[in-house]
Structure formats: structure tokens, C-alpha cells
Write a structure and sequence with these properties.
By secondary structure, the chain is an alpha/beta fold. The chain binds one RNA strand through helix 5, strand 13 and helix 11.
Length: 377
RNA sequence: GCGAAUAUGGUGAAGUGGUUAACACGCCAGAUUGUGGCUCUGGUAUGCGUGGGUUCGAUCCCCACUAUUCGCC
């Protein structure tokens, strides 16, 4: 069966919503953060570790799994859940973002997108139908429509044509979608143009999906103002009884701002990527464990954190691992960073429940930015 | 004890008689938002073993000393 969203409570001062999503692999609460596991693995972590940090949905990537090991093989293995032994809900991205990051605009046509494999350079052609077909085989719980993801800097003309084409692609994808266990989300584009966001949202809703995403906000060089504006222009035109998903966003501040504007789902590579580069989220701002000042710091990554890494290891040790290029360093920081974002959403949900989200934001910012200033001086 | 070679930043090492001493690693610090996983961007020797000399000028030429390495006894 498809997912089922239930709206439980709307926060009194903001557009924030408390809800649940029932899936074939359990009920998850929203707003939520979804870690990214591009190649059928959240880099360096096992499913058991993800359960332990109360992670719900994870992401996998259609493009990557299509190239390797191939959709047919995953299907033969019994689907993505079975293949990677993850018994929670899985969402697959459509490959639309790879279109943005791998193909030059001239290779985008009405039919689909031509681009080169990042593995061996061979030419590839991805279409809306192909993307959905692959996702059907992967057997994820939520599939994404195949969209084009232009930068906010694109001209009005380009953006207008692009979202028209993305709408036609959405229709084509929905037409071939046939996995009854799998839900399908539509994606709203339009950059920072108010009327295009509105148009894209309204038209996408007309097609009818199980949930709606706001895309094109976490592109390279996009400003936060554009991101927040894009959300504000899109949200009013999305139905209340379906989940809303802000694609690619995962900075703590952006999650809070997104929730306040009515977003239910977030995903981001940030917690795992910065982890591998030695950075950690903390309630007092982001810290770089590579900094010399942590050489003899025998306190946890974050005081009071309940994650496995903080319960058992010190900054000095993690710093040593990162400096020595030991994979355990990135692993421990990934555990901490993902747990940090999940804990953030837990606190946000509690604040929504108690109608004190703005106060929570105030308190969070005070801690988060105060420390940054301290670091600068 | 004798002979030879070499002495450049934290390390390995280029280099030239004349403005800011290459490069690599390390170190220091940034970046990273639907992941093309050891990535990208900066910074890092007021100084070329020590003391003298030649020269308008020396890290680069000469002498002595010291240290290291190799060979011989």
C-alpha cells in the first residue's frame, strides 16, 4: 500500500505541522530528517546503528544504483530493503539532481537527459519513464518524480520552460508508475520566482501525488533567502493532507526555518559528508575536530549528547582518528551528526506539540550562534 | 687516526652571484545542503650549519670550524 500521512497538530504561531506517515515499514513522525544512503548504504553505518539513533526513512539514489549494481540485480535480491537489510522505510531520489550536476543543459531534451557515467564515461540516457521503472524495481517505499533542477540564477524564461517540461515529465512518470507498495512524490521547481513557484506547485498538485517536494533550493551557491522564499511561495499551494519534503536541506538552521514554513521532511548528505571531513554539529555551532585546540580535549564531541560516539569517545580520540585517516573517525562523527539532526527534529516535534516553536528557535539560535562568535574572537 | 661527500622550513628535497627561496608531504585554517567518499581553497623558511673572507652585492665563490654519512686503518 501507499504511505498515509496524518496531520496531528498545527503549531499556533507558525506553519509548522506535527504528523505521522504510515509506511509498509512502520510509522514515522514528522517533521523528520532522512539520512542519505546513495549507494544503498548510509556511508560507514550499518542499519542497526541507524535504528539505534532512531532514524526513520533513509534515502537511496536511483542514478547510482541503476549504474551499479543495476536495478535488475536489486530486484533479484528481493528489493532494496532485502538487499541492504534495512527494515525501515526507504525513499529513492529520481536521478533528477544528477541531471543538474552531471549534464550540461544542452543535453536536456523533451524526451529525457543525456549524460555521461561518472564511473566509466559511457553515454547514458535517462527519461522519466526509465527513472520510475528503475525505482519500481528497487522497490523503495517512496519514489520521486524525475525533474529538472535548474539553479535559481536561471532566467525567468529558462525556468518557465523548465518547469513546464518537468510537469510533462511528472505526468509521464506517473503514467508508468505501477508498484502498488510504492508511493510517488511530485516536485515543485521555479527557483526564487514567486509566480513560477506558485504555478509549479498548483500544476503539480493537479496531477496528484502522495506527497510534494520542493526542489532546487540546495543548489550550489543558492542563498538562504532564496531558499526560504522558494518555500514560502510554494507551501500555500500544497494540500494539507499530504507530506511536504524539502529536498537536500540539512543545516540545523535551515531545518528549523523549513519546519516553521511548513516542511515535514528533510534529507541531506551534510551530516555524513562533513563527518568524513572531521566536522561535527553541536548545539553550540559546528566544530572542526581537526583544529589543534582539540588535541588534548578529553570531553565528548558534544556534552550531553546521547549518541554512541559521545557516550564512549573523546574529541581528542576522534581528532586523532581523523588526522590519521582512520575510517572509524568518520564513522563516529557520522553517528553523532545524524543523531544530532534526528535529536533536533525530536525537540522540534516536542516544541510544536507545546506550541512554543518560536521560543525554541530563539533558544537554539542563542546557543548555536553565540558560540560561533566566541570562536571568532 | 686518515680520506671523501653533504650541510636549505617540521620532513623529503629543488635552486640561483642581484626584486617576493620551486615542489611535495606535514602542520595551521577555511569550504562542503536531492553525495562523482582520502575532495577543494588558502596560509605556513625575515631565511639557506657556525665564524670569517672575496664582491657594489652571497644561500650560491674561498678558508676555518662543527655536525652527519660513507670508505680505509
Amino acid at each position: 500500500m501507499a504511505i498515509e500521512y496524518q496531520l496531528l497538530h498545527e503549531e499556533k504561531d507558525t506553519k509548522a505541522r506535527l504528523g505521522t506517515i504510515r509506511t509498509n515499514y512502520g510509522i514515522v513522525e514528522t517533521p523528520m530528517f532522512m539520512p542519505v544512503g546513495t549507494q544503498a548504504t548510509v556511508k560507514t553505518l550499518t542499519p542497526e546503528e541507524l535504528y539505534a539513533m532512531h532514524s526513520g526513512v533513509i534515502l537511496a539514489n536511483t542514478y547510482h544504483l541503476w549504474l551499479r549494481p543495476g536495478a535488475d540485480l536489486v530486484q533479484k535480491a528481493g528489493g532494496l530493503h532485502q538487499f541492504m537489510n534495512y527494515h525501515g522505510p526507504i525513499l529513492t531520489d529520481s536521478g533528477g539532481f544528477q541531471v543538474f550536476s552531471l549534464a550540461s543543459p544542452k543535453n536536456i531534451s523533451e524526451e529525457g537527459v543525456k549524460f555521461k557515467s561518472h564511473i566509466d564515461g559511457r553515454p547514458l540516457f535517462l527519461t522519466p519513464e526509465k527513472s520510475i521503472e528503475i525505482q519500481n524495481k528497487l522497490d523503495s517505499d517512496i519514489a520521486m518524480s524525475f525533474d529538472e533542477c535548474p539553479p535559481a540564477s536561471a532566467s525567468f524564461e529558462y525556468m518557465k520552460n523548465s518547469i513546464e517540461r518537468t510537469l510533462r515529465w511528472a505526468v509521464r512518470g506517473k503514467k508508468v508508475h505501477q508498484n502498488p507498495r510504492q508511493s510517488l512524490f511530485g516536485i515543485v521547481q521555479g527557483g526564487a520566482y514567486p509566480e513560477l513557484r506558485e504555478y509549479s506547485a498548483k500544476e503539480t498538485v493537479k496531477i496528484g501525488f502522495d506527497g510534494y517536494s520542493i526542489g532546487g533550493v540546495a543548489n550550489d551557491g543558492e542563498s538562504k533567502e532564496d531558499m526560504y522564499a522558494a518555500i514560502d511561495y510554494s507551501i500555500p499551494h500544497l494540500p494539507k493532507d499530504k507530506p511536504r519534503y524539502l529536498m537536500g536541506v540539512g543545516e540545523p538552521v535551515d531545518i528549523i526555518e523549513g519546519v516553521i514554513r511548513g516542511i515535514d521532511m528533510f534529507d541531506c548528505v551534510l551530516p555524513t559528508r562533513i563527518a568524513r571531513h572531521g566536522h561535527a554539529f553541536t548545539k553550540h555551532g559546528r566544530i572542526n575536530l581537526k583544529n589543534a585546540k582539540y588535541t588534548e580535549d578529553f570531553t565528548p564531541i558534544e556534552e550531553g549528547c546521547d549518541c554512541y560516539a559521545c557516550q564512549n569517545y573523546t574529541k581528542a580520540y576522534v581528532r586523532h582518528l581523523i588526522k590519521a585517516n582512520e575510517t572509524l573517525g568518520g564513522r563516529l562523527l557520522s553517528i553523532h551528526n545524524i543523531r544530532f539532526l534526528i535529536r533536533l527534529t525530536e525537540e522540534i516535534r516536542q516544541a510544536i506539540k507545546e506550541d512554543r516553536l518560536l521560543a525554541y528557535r530563539e533558544e537554539f539560535y542563542q546557543n548555536y550562534f553565540q558560540e560561533k562568535e566566541k570562536n571568532v574572537s
